[in-house]
Amino acid sequence: ADLVITGEGRVDGQSAGGKVVSAVAALARDRGVPCLALAGGVSGPLDELHALGLTAAFSLADGPRTLDELKADAAPLLTEVAEQAVRLVARRPVY
C-alpha cells in the first residue's frame, strides 16, 4: 500500500494506549507507509501516536457541533475530510 487510512470516533492522547489506530499506525510505520487517522474528534497531544507511526489525524468536526449533529452529517463530512487528507498526502489535485 502507498497510504493507510484508519479511523476512530475520537483520536487523542489515550489512543496510543491500545486503540486500533495505534496498532494500525505501528503496522504502517513498520512498512514505511504514511498513516492517516480520520476521526469524529481529535485532541492532542498526539506525540505518542506520531512516535508509533501516525502521520496525521483529521477531525470531521468542522466547528461547534453536537455528537448527534456529527453522526447525522457523518457521510458528507467524512468524504470532505478524506479528500482533503489525500490531497495533502498526494500533493496534487484529486479529481
Quick recap:
With 95 residues, the protein is an alpha/beta fold. It has helices spanning 20-30, 47-52, 67-72, 74-90; strands at 4-11, 35-42, 56-59.
Features:
globular, 4 helices, 95 residues, Rossmann fold, alpha/beta, 3-stranded parallel beta sheet, 3 strands, single chain
Task: Summarize the SSE layout with pairings.
Layout: E1 4-11, H1 20-30, E2 35-42, H2 47-52, E3 56-59, H3 67-72, H4 74-90
Parallel strand pairs: 1-2, 2-3
Keywords: Kinase, Transferase
Pfam family, one: Gly_kinase
Protein name: Glycerate kinase
Task: Describe this entry's structure for a reader.
With 95 residues, the protein is an alpha/beta fold. The chain has a single domain (4-90), classed as Rossmann fold (3-Layer(aba) Sandwich), CATH 3.40.50. The protein is built from 4 helices and 3 strands. It has helices spanning 20-30, 47-52, 67-72, 74-90, and strands spanning 4-11, 35-42, 56-59. A 3-stranded parallel sheet has the order 1-2-3. Helix 1 links the parallel strand 1 and strand 2 (35-42). The longest helix has 17 residues, at 74-90. Keywords: Kinase, Transferase. This is Glycerate kinase. GO terms for molecular function: glycerate kinase activity. One of its GO terms (biological process) is organic acid phosphorylation. It comes from Actinomadura bangladeshensis.
